[in-house]
Design brief:
The protein is mainly β. Helices cover 12% and strands 39% of the residues. The chain has a twelve-stranded antiparallel beta barrel. A two-stranded antiparallel sheet has the order 1-2.
Length: 418
């Protein structure tokens, strides 16, 4: 009884206490039968939210229905780990409110992250592509930020105007980060001796975090004149040299990206058709969207072969350089420069030819040693969407200055993010 008196906060007689309880119960019953509001604040049991965890603590607490829910932290609004799960009756990630607009001032958490390195890699490679998790990264924080954050695509608008999509173009530096695969077919006509060359390539970009990804260029078939052949009709068909590309994101904002890359050419092909070369090609690349619809991109780098011999150089010298996959380094030591400019003519939500873009890419290769070659070409090209996230792109490379390894080289490619 003493406890009951204390709970009611009365310090009155037992009779007055029970009268008060009677009137309170009577009011509650009257509320239920009439549908009117019982009290200004009615206790309600709801899941508690831990500000330090986007999934709550898994326990329950009592709050009033007039308690403001607008004071939730950024962690309450943004699911920072769609792979994680909770235990003990807590909230699952699918039940959490997710911030759908990436342009709100609320940003995903940048510290005290709960993901392990394996979760970050898993989300980057196969997790949902969520632009709401994207945030700018600066070069000054290269060693401290972004490595423990999953890959996230850049939002499609800055709140006032559209941002051009980050997409690879034919025969140009990539600059930005991607998560996609592609199939490419190349046809070079008018090689010396009036011969042709055909190349089939599978490519892929596999991000492991915001700061690091690996690109893959796999020339699964290449058919070209045999450098040891007896005539122009003697062809050699086989695989080309695999190229593995570790890529590092130096800085990124909504309208620019700067990356550094290392093209590692592996001698998986045959020297008869200009392959079987090991080389390292570091470079620095950029992608920028300075004006609505307009994109400029490019890069500077060098190529340094590591396995050339006198006999191999003599053999490679019979095969025109730079006729293979556009992303593959040449077989000789060279200085490499690329620049491209293009205009997106249709928005991404257009029903016909979404993201239609026309562009022109310029490529310069100057051999430093191993051959007396300087090569400059222009590649007009275009790309457009085909539906269901598939993209088609094509271009024609035309030599302009220096050696002429071919008259024209055409590329036809299909791309899809995953």
């Amino acid at each position: 009884m003493a406890d009951d008196l204390q709970v009611c906060g009365a310090n009155r007689s037992v009779r007055n206490t029970y009268l008060t309880m009677f009137y309170f119960i009577h009011s509650c019953l009257l509320t239920v039968t009439t549908g009117s509001t019982a009290t200004p604040v009615e206790a309600q049991t709801i899941p508690s939210q831990n500000p330090s965890s986007p999934f709550g603590s898994g326990s329950f607490s009592t709050r009033g229905v007039d308690e403001s829910t607008t004071n939730s932290s950024a962690n309450d609004l943004v699911d920072s780990n769609p792979f994680a799960s909770t235990s003990g009756g807590g909230l699952s990630p699918s039940n959490l409110p997710v911030e759908t607009s990436p342009f709100n001032s609320i940003q995903p958490p940048t510290s005290n992250r709960s993901e392990s390195i394996f979760q970050v890699i898993g989300q980057s490679l196969i997790g949902p592509l969520r632009s709401d998790r994207w945030r700018p990264l600066g070069i000054g924080s290269f060693f401290s930020e972004g490595w423990d954050e999953p890959y996230a695509p850049v939002p499609s608008t800055d709140g006032t105007s559209r941002i051009a999509p980050r997409q690879p173009w034919v025969n140009s530096d990539d600059g930005a980060f991607y998560r996609l695969f592609l199939f490419s077919f190349g046809y070079a006509r008018g090689l010396p001796g009036n011969t042709n060359e055909y190349t089939g390539v599978f490519g892929m970009f596999t991000p492991f975090s915001r700061r690091f990804e690996i690109g893959w260029a796999v020339p699964f078939v290449q058919s070209a004149p045999n450098a040891l052949g007896t005539g122009p009709t003697d062809y050699w068909t086989g695989a080309g040299d695999l190229t593995i590309i570790p890529r590092f994101l130096l800085a990124e904002d909504k309208r620019y990206t700067i990356s550094t890359n290392l093209f590692v050419r592996v001698p998986t092909g045959n020297a008869r058709i200009g392959n079987n070369v090991t080389s390292l090609s570091p470079d620095i690349e950029f992608w920028a969207n300075p004006f609505t619809g307009w994109v400029v991109r490019g890069g500077l780098g060098v190529t340094a072969p590591t396995n050339l011999s006198a006999s191999k150089i003599a053999l490679l010298d019979k095969s025109p350089p730079w006729t293979g996959f556009y992303g593959s380094p040449g077989p000789f030591s060279s200085f490499d420069a690329r620049f491209a400019v293009g205009k997106y003519l249709r928005p991404s939500d257009a029903k016909i030819m979404p993201n239609l873009c026309v562009d022109v890419a310029a490529n310069l290769h100057t051999a430093i040693s191993g051959g007396n070659y300087t090569y400059f070409s222009l590649t007009p090209g275009f790309l457009c969407g085909m539906g269901n996230h598939w993209v088609f792109r094509a271009g024609v490379e035309v030599p302009m200055v220096g050696i002429t390894p071919f008259q024209t080289q055409s590329f036809f490619q299909i791309i899809r993010p995953f």
